[in-house]
Design brief:
Immunoglobulin-like; mainly beta; about 10% helix; 1 helix
Length: about 180
């Protein structure tokens, strides 16, 4: 219990310290580089109007993922935590708590190579979403991948627009040839 309180305090301090650190990576689409059981890693992406956070670790090795998500200007409207093992009797279990004001949540995932994660939607008034992500009490940016391209954030914690537009260039399409 004391470890959880300390870890939550560390994450809260990290988020407060990075209030203006806007991330430039395109979060659209699930990272193609995310493979179950290969390494301890976070995948963060936006798809179908929802944010997704998923983790995995080296198969058979226990890793502790702790983090928080903070909203600026709005609140959580939906959440899906079905991928979690939340039975307190188990040696390794997961934990998620949404604050009463619905503007932030905290989580702990104990993972041994499968997948743990959460999905959430935010209100229209939400301007930004800030992610503070720890693995074993550390904030490695190289173990966080964002969007289909699998970009690493410049900092951790990092802030994204609540409803990001894709930065992917759209194909121009076929040009019609003029008839001579």
């Amino acid at each position: 219990m004391v470890q959880r309180i300390i870890a939550i305090g560390v994450v809260a301090c990290l988020i407060a310290a990075s209030a203006g650190a806007a991330e430039t990576a395109d979060p659209n689409g699930k990272p193609k580089k995310f493979k179950l059981g290969k390494e301890s890693i976070y995948a963060v992406w936006y798809a179908d109007g929802a944010w997704h956070v998923e983790v995995t670790s080296v198969r058979g090795e226990a890793s502790k993922f702790q983090g928080s998500v903070k909203l600026e200007g709005g609140e959580f409207t939906e959440g899906n935590f079905e991928k979690l093992e939340m039975k307190p009797g188990k040696k390794l279990h997961d934990w998620v708590a949404v604050e009463r004001d619905k503007k932030s949540l905290r989580f702990i995932f104990d993972n041994t190579g499968n997948s743990d994660g959460l999905d959430f939607k935010v209100s229209d008034s939400t301007r930004t979403v800030t992610f503070g992500l720890l693995i074993g009490g550390k904030t490695p940016t190289e173990n966080v991948i964002i969007g289909a391209k699998g970009a690493h954030p410049a900092t951790n914690p990092f802030t994204m627009p609540a409803r990001p537009e894709s930065t992917e260039e759209k194909p121009a399409g076929k040009k019609k040839k003029a008839n001579d």
